[in-house]
Amino acid sequence: MPSSTTPPTLPLSGFSEIAGRFDLCLCDVWGVVHNGVAAFGEAVSALVAMRERGISVVLVTNAPRPAAVIEQQLDGFGVPRAAWDAIVTSGDVCRGLIAARAGRPMFRLGPERDKPLVAGLDAPEVAPEEASYVLCTGLLDDETDTAETYAGLLAGFAARGLDMICANPDLVVERGGRIVPCAGSVALAYEEMGGRAIYAGKPHAPIYEAALAVADGLRGASIPRERICGIGDAIRTDIAGAQAFGITGIMVLAGIHAQDLMEASWDERHGWFGRQSHRPAYALPHLVW
């Protein structure tokens, strides 16, 4: 929980109130820019406004797919290229972890839509009993499955001491108003039974380091941490990751925690923040300018 000396979360009516403080925005995608079904028009407009005022925008997502796939998805939602400078995904970081294990037999747990993650890599897919490590990109059917669905499979991996690379540390995500489980819930279950999980995305430092390297290259200079903000809708990944990386965490309330926060008063929201592992510096219901 936040310490008693941690400043309270400050409410915002729009990002414009603090825009002058930042040169770089590391913005979450799912839950902030879109909900898996449609883009949020005001959020897109806010990102465009940031860039028009000289703030670089790097979209940082725990999606277990390469950035090019996310780019296509955003195009499909009608998100203009003017809304972002670059995209860095958990999938990009994950590919590096897989490449470091080139040639080793791997069991992939996840849906077919995540197969682009391993395209072109020397990562032979094998049956569970033949694997030397596990790659988890998600649940086979996130509409019906839970981590418990794979309890027997995970127990076998743990007994053999296999590492699990988790391509998406999110526990859950909102999809069109529904909350569905992600790979992080499987990795957490694996750790709870004694297995070792290696995480590619937020809140862990490698994805932030990759995003900052991209941004420094775009701007041609190093960006001080105090001039960087991280926007997201999840305490465990977005806000914890921003805090650990030394940047300003800004929380969108209408994401995965909407049930607790959207109908609450600000006094109730402050109480809720005080009970969490991390507290954002700022919060607003939706990302708006």
TrEMBL record:
**Any idea which UniProt keywords this protein has?**
Hydrolase
Q: Which GO terms of the molecular function aspect are on file?
A: hydrolase activity
Put simply, this protein is called TIGR01459 family HAD-type hydrolase
